[in-house]
Amino acid sequence: xxxxxxxxxxxxxxxxxxxxxxxxxxxxxxxxxxxxxxxxxxxxxxxxxxxxxxxxxxxxxxxxxxxxxxxxxxxxxxxxxxxxxxxxxxxxxxxxxxxxxxxxxxxxxxxxxxxxxxxxxxxxxxxxxxxxxxxxxxxxxxxxxxxxxxxxxxxxxxxxxxxxxxxxxxxxxxxxxxxxxxxxxxxxxxxxxxxxxxxxxxxxxxxxxxxxxxxxxxxxxxxxxxxxxxxxxxxxxxxxxxxxxxxxxxxxxxxxxxxxxxxxxxxxxxxxxxxxxxxxxxxxxxxxxxxxxxxxxxxxxxxxxxxxxxxxxxxxxxxxxxxxxxxxxxxxxxxxxxxxxxxxxxxxxxxxxxxxxxxxxxxxxxxxxxxxxxxxxxxxxxxxxxxxxxxxxxxxxxxxxxxxxxxxxxxxxxxxxxxxxxxxxxxxxxxxxxxxxxxxxxxxxxxxxxxxxxxxxxxxxxxxxxxxxxxxxxxxxxxxxxxxxxxxxxxxxxxxxxxxxxxxxxxxxxxxxxxxxxxxxxxxxxxxxxxxxxxxxx
Length: 538
Fold this sequence. Notes:
Elements: H1 2-16, H2 21-27, H3 31-49, H4 57-68, H5 70-79, E1 83-85, H6 93-103, E2 109-111, H7 129-136, H8 153-163, E3 184-189, H9 192-210, E4 217-221, H10 227-236, E5 241-243, H11 253-266, H12 271-279, H13 287-300, H14 304-307, H15 311-314, H16 319-339, H17 344-354, H18 357-364, H19 367-391, H20 398-415, E6 419-423, H21 424-427, E7 432-437, H22 453-467, E8 470-479, E9 481-484, E10 487-490, H23 495-498, E11 505-508, H24 515-534
């Protein structure tokens, strides 16, 4: 899995630097990069076969088109009189090339960016684009937006002290008219379990005392693995929470696989559903066949499903290639006929049996993961069966219901009263009245793999992003010891804590409080909170 992730990162970086598969293969200088370059070549062939693009292609392909077709570029330059570019510090080489092509010699654009929040170098972003912009456009006007309308003076002063340790492209100091605000709290926990429990208890006590909403609080951390214990203690206290990056039930891969067939039942001209259904699980139809089908369908302005039945297309394939394709399309036709006449339960069970989906899951994933996915599929089919019976709808009609529920789920999440759990990267651009920033330790923030000077600067920017998410209250925490590889290891508070404005910090626990006082106060406070918060309402 780690090798696959590294290959994905290589491929994304190559696309962001406009490096073709052949060039990537030639430039590969170690075995891992060589394997990734070969995967890149195969991946691009598969994308063409499926008539698909990935996220990076959405920038790369228009950039290549404009560079190769001046007439098309001129047409779009005429349409777009002004460009507005947000989060400019996160642009990569390909994006900057696209901006330059569209802006042309007129250079009529406004770019908003903050070099202190450049935290995506690991995926190809280049904050140096801010400097290059001044060189490429000498008439560029730089306007500093230094007044902050989000955070209190203490929070901004701490953030300014922190980021001053980085090499600066633009000198600036944030300031605010929102008052001094509360001191920033820093506490040392004994272990990660103690950190999670203490954080939740402090959150509950603050909410109880100040009559706030759960949605006013965020718990931020460096990596996703840190969320588990916070989730556990939130569930123990029955506190609603949202996990940033968490997906809807209907967005899970196994549910989308089955939904692809349902979408085809409702509309056989749904090309994305056709591609997903015929390839997951595989139906004996190869990438070359699909590439030919896609080209033929495009030339005849037909859907993939309709094109498969045309004599003109059949003439392009041998019997061995055509047979599994037509078998799949015939099966969809039969399923469509039955779906209007038979109960949903029968259709769904026959579908899962026909595509042998359970076997596919166990063949393609680890046993425990496959078991979970299969349970999700069974839960989904049971829900569909009940829904069809209750609403008197056919199985095909329920595809619209699924789409609507997914949309409503997303809206409910955005508006619900729940504590937000999020990585620092995912929290960028968000704000919360009260923030708990956990795991502020050497080896976590900054990450142990980022201890070289230039990488430490990016980690410092990540810490800066976390600090500046807070509007009124900020609490930092770290552990005295933490389990790594099944063994307890001592931890050290992050260097970034020492780089904050010390007059704005209030410490508890650890070396900053006398031990007897710390123990007595800490235990009494925790016991009091637990008793108070679990006491039944009168």
